[in-house]
Amino acid sequence: MSVIVVIAESSPFTGRLRRIAKQEVVGLRPSFSEHGLNSMLSRLNQISLVVITEDVPLEDVPDLADTVLDNAPEVPIVMVRDKADVVPEEAKAAGVWEVLDSSASDLDIERLLTRFHEEIEAEVVAPVEPPVLEAKPLDQGQHRVIVVVSPKGGVGKTTTAINLAVALSHRAPLQTVVVDYDAQFGDVASMLNVSPKHTIDEAFGDNAVHTNLVVKGLMSTFDRRLLVLPGSESPAAMEKVSSPQAAQLIRQLSEDYSYVVVDTGSGLTDEALAALEVATDVVFVTTMDVSAVKALRRSADLLDRLELLPANRSLIVNMADPGTGLTTEDIGAAMRMPVDATIPRSTEVVLSVNVGKPLAQAKSSSPFMAAIDLIVRKVAGEEKRSRGGLFRRFS
Length: 395
Known about the structure:
The chain is α/β, with parallel strands linked by helices. The protein has 14 helices and 13 strands.
């Protein structure tokens, strides 16, 4: 039988749940160490719901949600708050599904428990394989916004975004823009060996986005084909930019340019979520590291619940190593989508980053560029998804 886990200090809500719920209710204290919480959660089977009560400080919720999802990646998390009806953004980004008012009636609580129980039972009894989504053909005049996403750093996300942008610029010279939306550690300019005179924060006014004519004047050029909107050297520079402004910039650029490639920061940052509001395509990048795959899966699930996942999705497994214990099929199953390309570790890629010369610039025939070319063709609607991805010797 499934159990409901309540994370609470001394909230009376725990007692109400035990009285109303038909399932067993297990209480855990948030003051336990992370190791203690992990240990206790790992011993509980078939968790159907996790409730974080109103006496848990809001700033502690993201870490608690992360610990829960490490042990039960599929479980829904509900917050209880006093006089609240909207999930705070930081909690939503951490994986919290809903918020319930602490003064909710017993009937409201019973309805919530019934709904989540029925959803879990439906998934167990009748699992449904999601359809394989092919890239929609690029209509004449239709422009693409491709957002490259990974919740973990160090997986090759920026390298992928840069090479994808360079490859697309060979198809559409001066009609391809790469936008550095990594507000904390934006490296697009340095990886392209570009010394910008202006940075992306200058594209925003007090409450608006400057016109495309002004924004174009802020761009640098790489290889006389690719337009670059570099990130700022100061992590604080983008703090003044609201999410609607960040989305509007990408929307404006997509009106004037055939391809807009957006490199995002690690995790689901405000800028990443804003770009995904406008995206036509998303490229997920991961390594064969269990924690990286789990984090990416959680991010994809959250984006799906927020309705921020575009129909055209690609998955790249980078820096593949056959000795990790994971296979391409394992990762595809975890992500619920086929792997488009599996790229082995390569010193050639590292060297290209260090010297600021992307492999796409030289039209390299490396496995890395074979993967990039596949994504390029897929974005353009020319390539159907291969079953199991490229380079299956790692599977």
